[in-house]
Amino acid sequence: MNQLIEFDPMQMIGLGVAAALLVGLIFWWIYKLAHPSLEKQVEKTIKENSEDYAKDIVVSDGLYGYHFIDYLVLLPGRIVVLGLHSFEGYIFGADKIEEWAQVLNNRSYKFENPLLKNSHYVQSVQELTRNTEVIGRVLFTGNCSFPKGIPEGVIELGQLPSMLDELKRDTDSEATKVLWDELLAACRQQKNKYLNDK
After folding, report:
1. Phi and psi based region of residue 77 (left: phi greater than 0; alpha: psi -120 to 50; beta: remaining)
2. Where are the beta strands (DSSP E) in the chain?
3. pTM of the model
């Protein structure tokens, strides 16, 4: 004898909503895999084009404060201090100017010259690395442009692989790696001191 199965309309609605949410979640996950965030793109590019790297570094400024560095990147014979900035709109700046300008939606906003700030970071890292060459670069990751030209030392995301490749030197990587390990150990100590001082 056949029994007629009855479905509660509320259960059907609930199942439909759950199925729609599941499909939406799957599509979101696929989109995220195909379109990684800018931060993940930067880290992936650095990983693929360097011998090693470290991020979110804290070093002493040599006085009573600290510098916060986005990335230290190990290349053959060199270490790169990389600062990240995400800006939209038009950027106007030059090497020696103390303040740069961002123009967005017909409004102008001033911000500190990131090259000058990065040069202080380079100096602090250089003091911890003895004879290894330390170079500073500033990476702009947002949807911005430089109508008057990009200042020397500034790069955009698409230029990151070639910049890292150009800075590599034909040298003994082992000696640099020893100093790199010492540098990271010193940075960990200074980060712990900063966290204890907070």
Report:
1. left
2. 52-60, 66-75, 78-85, 89-92, 99-104, 107-112, 133-140, 144-145, 154-156
3. 0.76
pLDDT in tens, the chain (198 residues): 555 556 566 776 767 777 777 766 666 555 455 545 778 889 999 999 999 999 999 998 878 789 999 999 999 888 999 999 988 999 999 988 899 999 999 899 999 999 999 999 999 999 988 778 899 999 998 888 999 999 999 998 889 999 999 988 776 667 778 889 999 999 999 888 888 877
Q: Spell out the residues 6+ positions from residue 53 whose beta carbon is closer than 8 angstroms to its own.
A: 43, 46, 47, 71, 72, 73, 74
Domain ranges of the chain: 38-197
